[in-house]
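FORM 12-B: Structure-to-Sequence Request
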């Protein structure tokens, strides 16, 4: 109920400044014991990937890149939380301004570029969090790591986050790191997944637990690429997939003054293409792997459509910015 008032004030600010102000305010409230004012958790347990989720609605990666706000996010009622993307070394990301609101379309364009404090700071933040629910840790590569050496960065991150993660997401689908999406091509993906699978065998033995590995893909894939990815996921024993990241397409916002800004488009305009990729992926996988549906969810009905297309769980980010904590409750109740 309070969020429409807060949104008016936040939307008067630069999007990135508003982002940090909102997160810091939420964290202060949580630390002051005012969590009850933040949200309302819906108990609708789900079991997936060998994990128990409080409900089917999670926070998508990208909102909390450094894992600084895990407990504040948990207080809002999310059934699970994913933080990152983290890279081995700290990096500032792309030059500002790099985040834009397309309010008429309930959308965002961002070209943040994996801005984060690096793996060591990320792990320290995760260790400080009191949250005991399902926590996904999302890993990527540094912007200046050559694409032919990208696997090295993913392995460094996997080793670092493995003991602290409920599951690990391998992000190869952000449009804001040059060449990253090339890793979705069959030959490169085959090599990356093989290396990750082999490393997980070692980490499982070392830490005496097997942490699920998920792959996050783009909504801009054609049917052949989706089939190739599905087969590689099955061949390498990857545990699940997140569909999808942001889109580089602009047809849905054509004519908007900000439509030509570089970066990934999220929010309502990505719902249809993202859901179609989800549907095709589910068909190609023949129900053999769970899918987390993300992209353009702004209502409980949207969440239900993701499930109908083949998702087992959903995540929100841009919809949360536009609708506030009430969206978490609405989606969780819709998916009871």
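FORM 12-B RESPONSE
SEQUENCE OUT:
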């Amino acid at each position: 109920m309070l969020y429409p008032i807060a949104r008016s004030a936040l939307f008067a600010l630069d999007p990135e400044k508003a982002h940090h102000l909102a997160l810091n305010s939420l964290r202060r409230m949580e630390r002051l014991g005012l969590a009850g004012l933040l949200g309302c958790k819906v108990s609708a347990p789900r079991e997936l990937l060998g994990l128990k989720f409080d409900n089917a609605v999670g926070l998508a990666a990208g909102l909390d890149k450094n894992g600084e706000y895990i407990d504040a996010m948990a207080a809002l009622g999310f059934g699970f939380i994913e933080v990152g993307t983290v890279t081995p070394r700290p990096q500032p990301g792309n030059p500002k301004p790099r985040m834009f609101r397309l309010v008429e379309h309930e959308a965002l364009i961002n070209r943040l570029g994996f801005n984060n404090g690096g793996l060591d700071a990320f792990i320290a933040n995760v260790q400080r969090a009191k949250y005991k629910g399902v926590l996904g840790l999302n890993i990527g590569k540094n912007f200046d790591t050559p694409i032919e050496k990208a696997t090295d960065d993913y392995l460094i991150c996997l080793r670092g986050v493995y003991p602290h993660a409920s599951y690990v997401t391998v992000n190869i689908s952000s449009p804001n790191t040059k060449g990253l999406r090339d890793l979705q091509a069959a030959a490169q993906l085959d090599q990356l997944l093989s290396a990750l699978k082999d490393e997980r065998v070692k980490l499982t033995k070392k830490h005496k637990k097997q942490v699920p590995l998920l792959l996050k893909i783009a909504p801009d894939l054609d049917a052949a690429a989706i089939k190739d990815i599905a087969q590689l996921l099955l061949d390498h024993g990857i545990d699940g997939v997140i569909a999808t990241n942001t889109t580089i397409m602009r047809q849905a916002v054509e004519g908007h003054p900000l439509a030509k800004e570089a970066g990934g488009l999220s929010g309502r305009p990505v719902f249809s293409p993202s859901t179609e990729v989800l549907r095709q992926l589910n068909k190609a996988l023949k129900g053999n792997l769970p899918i987390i549906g993300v992209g353009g969810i702004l209502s409980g009905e949207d969440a239900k459509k993701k499930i109908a297309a083949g998702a087992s769980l959903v995540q929100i980010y841009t919809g949360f910015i536009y609708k506030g904590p009430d969206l978490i409750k609405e989606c969780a109740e819709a998916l009871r």
